[in-house]
Specification:
The protein is mostly helical. It contains 8 helices and no strands. The chain has one domain. Helices cover 71% and strands 0% of the residues. The longest helix is centred in the first third of the chain and has 39 residues. It is globular. The two termini are 44 Å apart.
Length: 234
């Protein structure tokens, strides 16, 4: 043993710890904002390709035709019911339940974020549909109108799934993410089997939901940075 007396390390100054915590929150906010920017670019790219690239028109229609062919199989009964699970009334009920869960977990900022994204994401899709309307290549008997991008149903299903992940406890999030993601994908597939939308429309709806969710997460983290919550996440 050395002859030097043992001394405990001096604790880090509170000011340094506060600056470090604030820096971590800034980084946590930048990630969702970057993701939102990527979603916006991807949304624009999907529409441009679907509108201006003739080969993409054909591939979109061919992929839809493959899904429609599944209508004669046993999945048709399920495909017929799934989109109705996100009709306006049920979607509102699910949204209220998720907000109440967030409030019960004493996460008022998350509750507010969920309420906003569940209102704004489907509304954005409905506003954009007539503005981004473009003709589709039709194969077989499918007739889809020009004002279909992005899909409101796929937007609603995806935003519902992502909101469920936001309000879930941290330990349960992996399971909730798998189940909610499967639900959103199933609704999207049902829309194609029932020939309600083109594949590009469904993809656009997913991107719209992810865009608003990323903005919501950034908003929650910004709020935490301005006024940190005393309650630790669990």
């Amino acid at each position: 043993m050395s002859g030097y007396p043992y001394t405990t390390p001096a604790p880090m100054p509170r000011a340094f710890m506060a600056v470090r915590a604030d820096e971590q929150r800034r980084r946590g906010q930048a990630g969702p904002l970057g993701l939102a920017g990527l979603c916006l670019l991807a949304l624009a790219l999907v529409w441009v390709v679907a509108e201006l690239v003739p080969a993409a028109h054909v591939r979109d229609a061919v992929l839809l035709h493959h899904f429609v062919a599944l209508e004669s199989t046993g999945v048709n009964a399920v495909a017929e019911r799934l989109p109705h699970l996100v009709n306006p009334l049920l979607f509102t009920i699910w949204g209220v339940v998720l907000v109440l869960v967030a409030l019960a977990r004493r996460r008022p900022r998350v509750a507010l974020a969920v309420a906003l994204v569940m209102a704004l994401a489907p509304l954005s899709s409905e506003i954009l549909k007539p503005l981004l309307a473009h003709p589709h290549v039709q194969i077989g008997y499918t007739q889809i109108g020009p004002a279909s991008f992005p899909s409101g149903h796929s937007t609603a299903a995806a935003i519902l799934a992502m909101s469920a992940v936001l309000v879930a406890p941290r330990r349960a999030r992996p399971v909730v993410a798998v189940l909610a993601g499967a639900f959103a994908l199933a609704v999207g597939a049902a829309l194609l089997i029932r020939s309600w939308h083109m594949p590009s429309d469904v993809l656009g709806g997913y991107l719209m939901a992810l865009l608003w969710t990323a903005l919501a997460v950034a908003g929650v983290r910004w709020s935490e940075r301005r006024r940190p919550s005393r309650r630790a996440e669990h």
